[in-house]
Specification:
CATH topology of the largest domain: Aspartate Aminotransferase, domain 2
Number of domains: 2
Number of strands: 16
Distance between the termini: 15 Å
CATH superfamily of the largest domain: Type I PLP-dependent aspartate aminotransferase-like (Major domain)
Oligomer: single chain
Order of helices and strands: HHEEEHHEHEEEEHEHEHEEHHHEEHHEEH
Radius of gyration: 23 Å
Structural class: alpha/beta
Bound molecules: pyridoxal-5'-phosphate
Shape: globular
Length: 468
């Protein structure tokens, strides 16, 4: 028996005792939902069955057994600005009354395009239902306009339900990720994985001249949290430009950095952006954006201009091939879904950008995160733990390593402490605290109170005291 086993057994019993109604629901869910829930990730929590939600507001969630939780998971990011956002609820309800989706734009569409361009610095946008769809579209377009087959990603990445990104680096070689269900093509033929923060490996991966795009998060957030080293992004941009590869930045999680994401805050210069999850305040919508030059190349590709001539592309508004007026593709392109760009989703994005993801909201998120990081760091130092805390903006992560790992290979040892991870998550749930179930991610919303942050820090401290 391991040293945490008695604590886990005790906490599991306590969870069952405190959740009789959720337990009954779990039985019912087993009857007709594969995995016992509408989506199998809902079973990834440390509890023996899922908490069934009654209500959520701001950073507080209540279950059907009347247990109340401080929510630092926030739906694993869509709720970054809090649950039950009044401006988003109002905007979506109004739009639903006028019809949710028409395969036609509303007047809001022009405004949302302008808001996205102004905030994130890229000129042309498309809407999707998820960040996964946005990444898939960008990968497809990058390959089309460059006429190159290969995508480079960073070892340990996750960019959604995107087959091309399901690779990892083992013993210096790109391998298929074993988690990719039902895949019959060998993704390693067209995707290369390189270690994050390793400009030399990146240069080598780009050297054959066959790379359409590098797809990255500004800081890696799905393999613990790995921050970029000084100058890494500068090198990444210079190397992609030199190799003629596009740079796609996935801001889905790092939108926590500031109103324009890490791209604005850190002065990144991507050719394309993917932004999902919180961009519509929790409503299912996402966007992808491209620079004027990338857009012009898309338009030229559509017009049948060969790849070699694409470098000459311009973006003048009066150019007959201008991306501003010409549909990028028509009909069956393999890009786009029926409900993508629906009016209700755009209403949710407009409300989020105008009234929710404001400078004030970020000020409160970032100052709350400072308190959280300071509190956790104090516990780690006082308790002499071989842990550290890293954060990008309002997204913080406890890492079970003495210093922040610089890449996924280094992070894997920390992530391998599965029992510790499980025990701490379960302990927190039983103390009324939710953090993301997958690793130790804690998100601070504008609604998160100082008292909630103090409770989280105190609960981690108490866990360490009890676990020994
Ligand atoms: C960085 C990143 N990009 C994209 C996605 C995919 O988002 P979605 O599941 O909403 O499609 C995720 C999901 O966790 C993500 O972490």
């Amino acid at each position: 028996m391991t040293y945490l086993a008695p604590l886990i057994a005790r906490e599991t019993q306590a969870f069952v005792a405190a959740h009789p109604k959720s337990a009954a629901q779990a039985q019912a869910l087993q009857q007709h939902w594969l995995s016992g829930a509408p989506m199998h990730w809902m079973r990834d929590w440390a509890s023996p069955f899922p908490i069934v939600v009654e209500d959520a507001e701001g950073a507080t969630l209540t279950d059907i057994d009347d247990n109340v939780y401080d929510d630092f998971c926030l739906g694993d990011t869509p709720g970054m600005f809090g649950h039950g956002l009044a401006p988003v609820a109002r905007a979506v309800a109004e739009q639903m009354r006028a019809g949710a989706t028409y395969m036609l734009p509303t007047t809001l569409a022009a405004e949302v395009g302008a808001l996205l361009a102004e905030r994130f610095g890229l000129q042309f946008w498309q809407a999707t239902l998820s960040a996964s769809d946005a990444n898939r579209a960008l990968i497809r377009w990058a390959r089309a306009v460059t006429n190159k087959p290969v995508i480079v990603v960073f070892d340990g990445c996750y960019h959604g339900m995107v087959e091309d990104c399901f690779v990892e680096l083992r013993h210096g070689r790109t391998r298929m990720d074993a988690g990719l269900v039902g895949q019959v093509s060998d993704m390693t033929r067209t995707t290369r994985a390189v270690p994050f923060n390793d400009a030399g490996a990146l240069e080598a991966a780009l050297a054959q001249g066959d790379v359409a795009a590098v797809l990255c998060e500004p800081a890696m957030t799905n393999c613990g949290m790995i921050l970029p080293e000084d100058n890494f992004h500068k090198r990444l941009r210079a190397l992609t430009r030199k190799a003629g590869a596009l740079l796609i930045v996935d801001e889905t999680h790092t939108l926590s950095t500031g109103p324009g994401g890490a791209t604005k805050a850190w002065g990144l210069e991507p050719d394309a952006l993917c932004i999902g999850k919180a961009i519509a305040g929790g409503f299912p919508a996402a966007v992808w954006g491209v620079s004027a030059e990338f857009a012009a190349r898309i338009t030229l590709w559509t017009a049948g201009v060969p790849a070699g001539a694409l470098q000459q592309a311009t973006s003048h508004q009066d150019d007959p091939l201008s991306p501003a007026g010409t549909p990028a593709v028509q009909g069956r392109s393999g890009i786009g879904t029926t409900l993508a760009g629906n009016a209700a989703g755009l209403a949710a994005i407009a409300a989020t950008l105008r009234e929710v993801a404001t400078e004030d909201a970020y000020r409160s998120m970032l100052s709350g995160t400072e308190k959280l990081v300071a509190g956790m760091s104090e516990v780690i130092v006082r308790r002499k733990l071989p842990w550290c805390v890293v954060h990008v903006g309002a997204r913080a992560e406890i890492v079970f390593a003495a210093a922040p790992p610089e890449n996924a290979a280094a992070m894997r040892a920390a992530l391998a402490q599965r029992e510790l991870n499980h025990a701490l998550h379960l302990y927190l749930i039983n103390r009324g605290i939710l953090i993301a179930p997958f690793h130790m991610m804690m998100l601070v919303s504008p609604a998160t109170s100082e008292a909630q942050i103090e409770r989280l820090v105190a609960a981690v401290d108490a866990f360490v005291g009890e676990a020994g």
